[in-house]
């Protein structure tokens, strides 16, 4: 799959580190060997997976002559923080539409990503109730800005459209080269699955390289069949956008919903355990909403002997640690 024909800004200059986790593997009784791909260390204020996608999304915006970016997310959205971060670098205005998925959860004075929206100089924040039609809300904002003479470009939630998903097709290609260079092979890859662009792009990229490694998505929001359909549909659209004719096996798409807990962004005990365990064994920070819950899934699957003894697992660390500072109470309650 040739990514060179799509415009991008060059935000990702180097491969993110691939690290073995000896102490974390040992804490899980050395049943499996666990590796991590450090996409939390991608550039952009605070780091994280959206930088790979925005590399393509912002290039598309500039190609269309935009001077203003509009995007949306939850109240503690890493995607909003990184979109704003890259807009700042490019000298573009950035407007955020935040969905209050948990009623009463938006607090202008909140820490975490919300604090960073202010620090990075966001142009405006509009808060809308959970369940709002976010595309329509962003279009409303775009229309207002057009009337003021601006040229807005809308990046969808999570940059999870075919343009953004290219960033994770690229990640799969990068991983393939790293595995070869380092003489590594993986039996399973575990990825967080949210707005689906990461999971979809990554799996499509692996299949496009004929890399036959099973990918397990850990959902953070939707029910299994709904999430799997979202991933599968985005894979097909992305392949079409890239102009590649590919048979995408539906059964390659797997996204468990067992680790969501009471709902999106709501803490679970298993998430708190996962965040603490990785911090105290490997000094790597996860986040409460995505990578922490995804890691709680990996831990549970290892404990249940879901993977063959001695298997090599790779966990894709998508970032998000700035959100930890908005969840202090969840971590203080448990020691
Ligand atoms: C957005 C996000 C994800 C999920 O990626 P999607 O492409 O939305 O599925 C995972 N981890 C973190 C930290 C994120 O911010």
TrEMBL record:
The keyword Lyase applies. Its cofactor is pyridoxal 5'-phosphate. Keywords: Lyase, Pyridoxal phosphate. It comes from the Bacteria. The modification N6-(pyridoxal phosphate)lysine is found at residue 50. Pfam families: PALP. The active site is at 77 (nucleophile). It is an enzyme of class 4 (lyase). Residues 15-319 form the Tryptophan synthase beta chain-like PALP domain. Its EC number is 4.4.1.15. Belongs to the ACC deaminase/D-cysteine desulfhydrase family. PANTHER family: 1-AMINOCYCLOPROPANE-1-CARBOXYLATE DEAMINASE-RELATED (PTHR43780:SF2). This is D-cysteine desulfhydrase. The lineage of its organism: Bacteria, Pseudomonadati, Thermodesulfobacteriota, Desulfovibrionia, Desulfovibrionales.
């Amino acid at each position: 799959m040739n990514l060179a024909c799509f415009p991008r800004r060059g935000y990702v200059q180097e491969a993110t580190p691939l690290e073995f986790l000896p102490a974390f593997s040992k804490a899980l009784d050395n049943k499996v060997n666990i590796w991590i791909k450090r996409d939390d260390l991608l550039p952009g204020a605070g780091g994280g997976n959206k930088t790979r996608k925005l590399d393509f999304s912002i290039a598309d915006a500039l190609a269309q002559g935009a001077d203003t970016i509009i995007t949306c997310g939850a109240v503690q959205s890493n995607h909003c923080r990184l979109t704003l971060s890259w807009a700042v670098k490019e000298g573009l205005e950035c407007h955020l539409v935040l969905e209050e998925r948990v009623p009463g959860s938006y607090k202008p004075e909140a820490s975490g990503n919300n604090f960073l929206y202010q620090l990075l100089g966001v142009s405006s924040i509009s808060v809308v109730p959970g369940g709002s039609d976010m595309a329509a809300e962003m279009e409303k904002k775009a229309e207002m800005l057009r009337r003021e003479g601006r040229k807005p470009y809308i990046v969808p939630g999570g940059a999870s459209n075919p343009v953004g998903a290219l960033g994770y097709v690229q990640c799969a290609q990068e991983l393939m080269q790293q595995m070869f260079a380092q003489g590594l092979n993986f039996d399973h890859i575990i990825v967080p699955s949210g707005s689906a662009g990461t999971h979809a792009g990554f799996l499509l990229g692996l299949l496009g390289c004929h890399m036959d490694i099973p990918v397990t998505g850990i959902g953070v929001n939707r029910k299994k069949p709904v999430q799997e359909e979202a991933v599968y549909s985005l894979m097909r659209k992305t392949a079409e956008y890239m102009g590649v004719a590919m048979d995408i096996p539906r059964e390659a798409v797997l996204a468990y919903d067992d680790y969501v807990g009471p709902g999106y962004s709501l803490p679970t005990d298993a998430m708190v355990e996962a965040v603490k365990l990785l911090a105290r064994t490997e000094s790597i920070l996860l986040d409460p909403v995505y990578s922490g819950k995804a890691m709680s899934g990996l831990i549970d699957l290892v404990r249940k002997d879901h993977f063959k003894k001695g298997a090599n697992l790779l966990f894709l660390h998508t970032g998000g640690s700035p959100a930890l500072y908005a969840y202090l109470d969840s971590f203080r309650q448990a020691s």
